């Protein structure tokens, strides 16, 4: 322990008259804000008249609230408006808070935020994805007078990203009250350097902040480790150094390890004492696990090898935009887990802390990513994907701030997410090579034989690449220099996890020094490179960091032990990177905007889960990319995306398929069957159309039939070892007879945040889903809950999400219902012009 002299004045903030558990207070600061889309800097003044402003709670996304529009918006950012918005909140403090240090903590504000307290400017934060805080203490009033915090959000550059970002205070806000001597924000760091079934060392590093302006002595830290039931499993008290870091190791006997199947969690309670008086406490959730990436064996967790079955995920969630309640993230992660996903790449920026918490709780591994752009911007689309026609002023983006803010933004990400056991990789960037032309120029120069396509193996000869690189490079290689600096900054905070970058030109990156700057190289859409890269660089650790959601991508991974896994694009449909109007985003995912599983999701469920499954979809033969003749068998000819959109977008899209059996009599229909069973047999109205082996369709893993349509029932049965394992049925549809309504939960927490996902389906008189009829559905919510968004999951749905009515798509729609703080019964009903659902009852507890 380091002693610095002790003054009696310290007793003012450690008085025994206060309960020990009140030494740190974290208040919900989300309620009772005022908001206005206005460009008026007078709004920073505490006496500004905001009586006519809209009353809101945060998180809040004004872009999704404003809705989609064709004019003064852009394809890249989802055809929603930007602008300048102001937020103001009045609050009071008591005299008892006067000796406290009070900070405001913003989970995320998009973007270019500026903050004032009582008219005093606190600072700005350009990056819209960072979590940050300000010390308010010296500007506050503690006599019951009103304090006013004001936040300006400048989103005039409405196409500053390649995807939808949202606008405003879109993540949670907290008010944190501590004593002057306290544990720093994100000041407790936990690692598990030694892990076995018998024992685990838990290493704890704690940093202290002393703002009392007084020296202290006789300080100590007490660490208590609790298991998931709250039982104490270990504790230690150590003398403390007020300045610098404090380290301790606690050994846990017979630890319950954190893993994807058993995500066991512990709580570390850290208490700061002066003498026998507690002056601060912090609780952190953590997990005990070990993991490793190996250049030959791939990935292992707790010494068990398996493949990363990952998806990329953007930070928006359909109807709620980027103001996503934790309960919706929980629902989405459950959906992903249901098809076998065990990993998420946070594409391509820091995501909400609540999502990381859910990944911890549910056993999802995480690639935590910092940036999509560094010093050079990427092209932004105005009318359609690939036009790169966004106006300069509207496209101003983070590269303008990178040199000043990158270190702080990157380190804040690592500090904030340090203790999450789900996080196994820090990613410094995504496809950065595209913004440095000498990389793509070198690639083109050394692949003059035409081997430059995504499905072709490029030149990996380092001698030829170095020679070409020197000719293309006009000065220092800024990309490699920045990469090394970013990795250095990460290592200054965390040496327990490897770094990675999503590289789209790994053959060049491994020669330039960029690929060697990181611990692991991510291959974006370069599965054709795996063998060549492994041969040329046998010590290189490889992860498929961004992959098409195609069978070939997964097969390329499972056939190669050295490839740690893949992250497909994408887990859920996302807004932006789309066009032309009204295509607001890209449904190239396992689940659509509303959370409905797509055919691709069913297909990958068959790849990633062992539970027997069979599923089918249909396509008229004159629309399909597949064709069949007795002479040649099955053939495939890709139909590239038509102009004006970039034609190679088809590589990301799924086949043209329909989840129905409803066509013209005798129309020629191609039936695609997705299954993990050995064989499948197709029946039309009870008559077998033949049994086929999945192994006979090893090119795409899709069993196919060519069938003339006949009204009735189409059923496919999957077999393993000759025994029936699963079946799936499609039937011809009748007229609308019923609206079925259901919810993912029957009870909700009356906390003002919990959300139920309420789904409706259009059914005929036999209970079959009606896919071909679009009905306007009106939701009514009676009781103490509110509708926060309606959706049908379609990428061309540009109707407002903030009303009560939505048109069905493929016979389905959803409403997201959020609790208030009042307990009681909530009644939800869905109605069309001709039929209504039964009442759905949810209880708020």
From TrEMBL:
Domain Glycosyl hydrolases family 2 sugar binding: 28-178
GO biological process, one term: carbohydrate metabolic process
Domain named DUF4982: residues: 668-724
Pfam families on file: DUF4982 (PF16355), Glyco_hydro2_C5 (PF18565), Glyco_hydro_2 (PF00703), Glyco_hydro_2_C (PF02836), Glyco_hydro_2_N (PF02837)
Domain spans labelled Glycoside hydrolase family 2 catalytic: 296-432
Start and end residues of each Glycoside hydrolase family 2 immunoglobulin-like beta-sandwich domain: 188-289
InterPro entries: Beta-gal/glucu_dom_sf, DUF4982, Galactose-bd-like_sf, GH, GH2_Domain-Containing, Glyco_hydro2_dom5, Glyco_hydro_2, Glyco_hydro_2_cat
Protein keywords: Glycosidase, Hydrolase
Domain Glycoside hydrolase family: 739-839
Family: Belongs to the glycosyl hydrolase 2 family.
Protein name, UniProt field: Glycoside hydrolase family 2
Organism of origin: Flavivirga eckloniae
Lineage start: Bacteria, Pseudomonadati, Bacteroidota, Flavobacteriia, Flavobacteriales
């Amino acid at each position: 322990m380091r002693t610095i002299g002790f003054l009696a004045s310290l007793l003012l903030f450690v008085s025994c008259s206060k309960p020990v558990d009140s030494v740190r207070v974290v208040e919900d600061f989300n309620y009772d804000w005022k908001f206005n889309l206005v460009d008026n800097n007078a709004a920073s003044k505490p006496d500004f008249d905001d009586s006519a402003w809209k009353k809101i709670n945060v998180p809040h996304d004004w872009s999704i609230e404003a809705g989609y529009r064709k004019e003064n918006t852009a394809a890249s950012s989802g055809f929603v408006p930007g602008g300048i918005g102001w937020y103001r909140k009045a609050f009071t403090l008591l005299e008892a808070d006067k000796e406290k240090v009070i900070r405001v903590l913003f989970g995320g504000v998009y973007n270019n935020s500026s903050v004032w307290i009582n008219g005093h400017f606190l600072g700005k934060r350009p990056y819209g994805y960072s979590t940050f805080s300000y010390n308010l203490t010296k500007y506050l009033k503690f006599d019951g007078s009103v304090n006013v915090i004001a936040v300006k959000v400048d989103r005039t550059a409405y196409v500053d990203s390649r995807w939808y970002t949202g606008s405003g205070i879109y993540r949670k806000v907290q008010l944190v009250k501590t004593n002057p001597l306290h544990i720093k924000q994100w000041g407790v760091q936990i690692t598990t350097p030694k892990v076995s079934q018998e024992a685990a060392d838990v290493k704890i590093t704690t940093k202290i902040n002393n703002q009392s302006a007084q020296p202290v002595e006789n300080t100590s830290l007490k660490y208590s480790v609790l298991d998931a039931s709250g039982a104490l499993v270990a504790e230690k008290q150590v003398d403390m150094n007020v300045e610098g870091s404090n380290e301790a190791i606690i050994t846990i006997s017979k630890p319950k390890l954190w893993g994807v199947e058993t995500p066991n969690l512990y709580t570390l309670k850290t208490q700061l004492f002066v003498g026998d008086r507690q002056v601060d406490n912090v609780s952190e959730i953590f997990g005990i696990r070990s993991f490793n990436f190996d250049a030959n064996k791939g990935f292992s967790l707790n010494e068990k090898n398996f493949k990363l079955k990952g998806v990329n995920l953007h930070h928006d969630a359909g109807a709620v935009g980027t103001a996503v309640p934790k309960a919706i993230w929980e629902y989405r992660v459950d959906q992903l887990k249901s098809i076998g996903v065990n990993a998420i790449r946070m594409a391509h920026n820091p995501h909400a802390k609540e999502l990381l918490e859910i990944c911890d709780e549910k056993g999802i591994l995480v690639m935590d990513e910092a940036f999509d752009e560094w010093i050079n911007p990427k092209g932004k689309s105005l009318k359609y994907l690939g036009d790169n026609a966004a106006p300069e002023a509207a496209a101003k983006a983070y590269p303008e701030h990178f040199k000043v803010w990158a270190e702080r933004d990157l380190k804040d990400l690592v500090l904030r997410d340090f203790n999450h056991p789900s996080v196994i990789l820090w990613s410094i960037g995504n496809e950065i090579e595209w913004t440095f032309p000498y990389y793509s120029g070198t690639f083109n120069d050394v692949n003059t034989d035409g081997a430059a396509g995504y499905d072709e193996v490029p030149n990996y000869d380092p001698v030829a690449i170095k020679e070409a690189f020197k000719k293309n490079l006009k000065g220092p290689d800024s990309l490699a220099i920045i990469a090394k600096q970013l990795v250095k900054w990460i290592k200054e905070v965390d040496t327990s996890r490897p770094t990675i970058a999503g590289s789209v030109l790994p053959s060049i990156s491994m020669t330039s020094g960029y690929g060697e700057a990181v611990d692991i190289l991510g291959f974006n859409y370069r599965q054709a490179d795996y063998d060549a890269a492994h041969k040329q660089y046998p010590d290189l650790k490889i992860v498929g960091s961004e992959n098409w959601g195609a069978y070939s991508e997964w097969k390329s991974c499972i056939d190669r032990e050295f490839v740690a896994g893949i992250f497909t694009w994408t887990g859920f449909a996302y807004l932006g990177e789309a066009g032309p109007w009204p295509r607001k985003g890209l449904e190239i995912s396992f689940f659509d905007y509303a959370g409905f599983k797509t055919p691709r999701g069913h297909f990958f469920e068959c790849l990633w889960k062992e539970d027997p499954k069979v599923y089918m979809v249909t396509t008229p033969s004159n629309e399909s990319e597949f064709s069949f003749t007795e002479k040649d068998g099955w053939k495939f000819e890709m139909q590239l995306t038509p102009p004006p959109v970039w034609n190679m977008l088809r590589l990301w899209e799924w086949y043209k398929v329909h989840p129905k059996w409803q066509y013209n009599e005798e129309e020629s229909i191609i039936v695609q069957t997705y299954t993990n069973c050995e064989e499948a047999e197709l029946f039309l109205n009870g008559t077998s159309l033949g049994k086929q082996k999945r192994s006979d369709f090893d090119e795409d893993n899709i069993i196919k039939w060519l069938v003339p349509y006949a009204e009735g029932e189409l059923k496919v049965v999957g077999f393993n070892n000759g025994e029936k394992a699963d079946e799936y049925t499609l039937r011809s549809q009748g007229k609308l007879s019923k609206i079925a309504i259901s919810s993912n939960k029957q009870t909700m927490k009356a906390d003002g945040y919990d959300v139920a996902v309420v789904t409706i389906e259009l059914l005929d008189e036999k209970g079959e889903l009606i896919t071909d009829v679009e009905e306007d559905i009106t939701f009514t919510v009676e009781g103490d809950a509110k509708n926060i968004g309606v959706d049908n999951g379609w990428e061309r749905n540009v109707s407002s999400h903030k009303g009560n009515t939505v048109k069905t798509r493929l016979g389905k729609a959803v409403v997201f219902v959020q609790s208030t703080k009042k307990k009681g019964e909530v009644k939800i009903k869905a109605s069309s012009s001709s039929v209504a659902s039964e009442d759905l009852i949810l209880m708020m507890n």
